[in-house]
Amino acid sequence: MPKLSTEARKELEALAAMPDSKIDTSDIPEIRELPSDAVVGRFYRPKKTTVTMRLDADVVAWLKASGEGYQTRINAYLRELMYRLRPQRRVNETAQAGRVRQPLAKHDRPKRAHR
């Protein structure tokens, strides 16, 4: 890719500094539908963070049984859950508590009956 000329660079910097409200978009046609081969978020690569989690052994075995990339699948499952709960959270912050069960603190757990 050729380098930008000084003039072109200055023009781009001026456009970048301009507030969105000042940009005339009237000549851009409205997108009514996406093409069938369009991939939304194709180039989106969020920053990854290393975490340590304790998971049940059977859950890890199930994830690993379907082949390589189990950590990627965990991320995909969590992202899907995040997107599913996001609109619900906007409507009612407390509604999400019923969708995702949080482990009970020791003092809140029901006592088991001895047999």
Features:
115 residues; mainly alpha; 41% helix
Could you describe the 3D structure shown?
The protein is mostly helical and 115 residues long. It has a domain at 48-99. The chain is 41% helix and 0% strand. It contains four helices and no strands. The protein has helices spanning 6-17, 57-65, 70-91, 96-99. The longest helix has 22 residues, at 70-91. The protein is elongated, with a radius of gyration of 25 Å. Residues 91-103 have low confidence and may be disordered.
Helix content: 40-55%
Task: List low-confidence stretches.
Answer: 91-103
The percent range for strand residues is under 5%
Sheet with most strands: none
Question: What pattern of helices and strands is seen along the backbone?
Answer: HHHH
List the helices and strands and how they pair.
Elements: H1 6-17, H2 57-65, H3 70-91, H4 96-99
In short:
The protein is mainly α. It has four helices and no strands.
